[in-house]
Amino acid sequence: MRLVWFRNDLRCHGHTPLTQALAGGDAVTALHILCPDQWDAHGVAPARRWFVLHSLLELGESLAARGVDLHVLDGGDFDGSVTALEHFVAEQGVTEVFCNREYPLNELNRDRAVARRLEAQGVRIHGFDDGVLVPPRALHTGKGTPYTVFTAYKKRWDVWMDDLQPEAVPAPDWPGGQGRFVGRDRVERALETLSVPDSVTALWHPGEDAARGQLKDFVEQHLGDYKARRDFPAEPGTSGLSAALSAGTLAPLDAYLAARPALQDAKAREGAATWIGELAWRDFYRQIMHRFPSLATGAPFRPETALLQWSDNEEHFQAWCEGRTGYPLVDAAMRQLVQTGWMHNRLRMLTAMFLTKHLFIDWRKGERFFMAHLVDGDFAANNGGWQWSASTGTDAAPYFRVFSPVRQSHRFDPQGRFIARYVPELATADDKTIHEPWKQPLMTPDYPTTIVAHQGVKQRVESAFRAARDAWNQQNGDAS
Ligand SMILES: Cc1cc2nc3c(=O)[nH]c(=O)nc-3n(C[C@H](O)[C@H](O)[C@H](O)COP(=O)(O)OP(=O)(O)OC[C@H]3O[C@@H](n4cnc5c(N)ncnc54)[C@H](O)[C@@H]3O)c2cc1C
């Protein structure tokens, strides 16, 4: 018996383990192991859990309709999932396991334990890399080290993709007939324990059918304009596919292949190339997470930044979380996150920089808060984005770069349409006031005053980073 173990790859299309397992006519069964305690430990948002569990329901139906059984077990946490898998394999007489690799530390440790225990019983494990376009150990610099700067990585990434000219994963050779969905009730019970607001469930569409439809619409309607429109949060300029890519209801290769033809179209080329570049960013952060496992333990990529003396101002942190900083675009963004489970990329950078530069609060607090709300919460991308914004990471935004919330607001939400959508207190403010309400306090009486001034932030950040670097040099015996 062959087993396909589904993890964050809840789809039938573009799934090499499934296609390979079904090739050759052996009996095949499928498994997913719920790990609610691991979700708790990783601080995964109810929105993401809801998205994953509904996607799992759809997967179970799709597999069953094509003649493959899906079993859903409850492992508790990753350790429990190893034991659950071991029992399942023994009970069902499984001789080969097919799955996609996962790269963060806890997942790697789980898979190492699985390999040790199953291989000791003579079970063969076949791992694949459908979760990325380029596997995390494929590319390295001339010195044999991992890339830590995106532009250099991307050059090699492009060469790899051009050389490979990947094709879609062939459709599985389905056995036909009706399969069983064993443990559906477990998924339903897990869904019942969640409290997810309607403002989230109305917006997101779990499952692979929805993801494929959304990809098609995006490529047909928005891909060509992506470069020009992607930075404006009031516009539907980006794909909104991050939740699907994160839960694996969409394969990154299928996303890439859908966009690739537009590279030959003079009008759409720029948009397509820029969007494909975002898929490369996704790979980049996965390879960073894989090659620098200490990141998964909360360490900053730049060791000297571990010595930064962050502020512990809880009132400031709460104001940021609740969208009450007095900076309209920051507040609109934070309210978007809490209400919808998603935030536009430009605003993720802005709010993360605001927390870590203006308020000088530890990026790990922001990283956790994002994870606790994002429908697309993805450890590697979230950690990478936070460390980039805080200037503690790879490719770091230089620490002297501090976004001005007012300039960003004028540039990327010029008429204040996005702000008006999420900050009702400012909905009737004019085009100028909506960016700087403190200039017209009588017209915006319900909106909070700014909790920190923009002026002086850059200098404070510079001196904090200098102090951390000096302390680091001293600790490490380097006086330079
Ligand atoms: C502080 C911070 C936290 C972030 N946290 C997450 C997260 O938890 N999960 C997540 O998927 N993305 C995260 N991102 C990256 C990015 O903001 C989102 O992927 C993007 O906003 C999702 O919207 P979209 O699907 O419309 O993206 P599109 O613009 O349509 O991009 C297509 C896909 O490329 C990938 N992508 C785009 N930008 C990035 C990026 N900078 N890094 C890595 N992958 C990228 C995503 O999978 C995305 O769906 C974070 C960025 C920052 C600055």
Automatic annotation (TrEMBL):
UniProt keyword list: Chromophore, FAD, Flavoprotein
Domain Photolyase/cryptochrome alpha/beta: 1-133
SUPFAM superfamilies: Cryptochrome/photolyase FAD-binding domain, Cryptochrome/photolyase, N-terminal domain
Cofactor: FAD; (6R)-5,10-methylene-5,6,7,8-tetrahydrofolate
Keyword set includes Transit peptide: no
Chain ranges passing through the membrane: none
Record has Flavoprotein as a keyword: yes
A Pfam family of this chain: FAD_binding_7
Family of this protein: Belongs to the DNA photolyase class-1 family.
Protein name (record): DNA photolyase
Organism encoding this protein: Alloalcanivorax venustensis ISO4
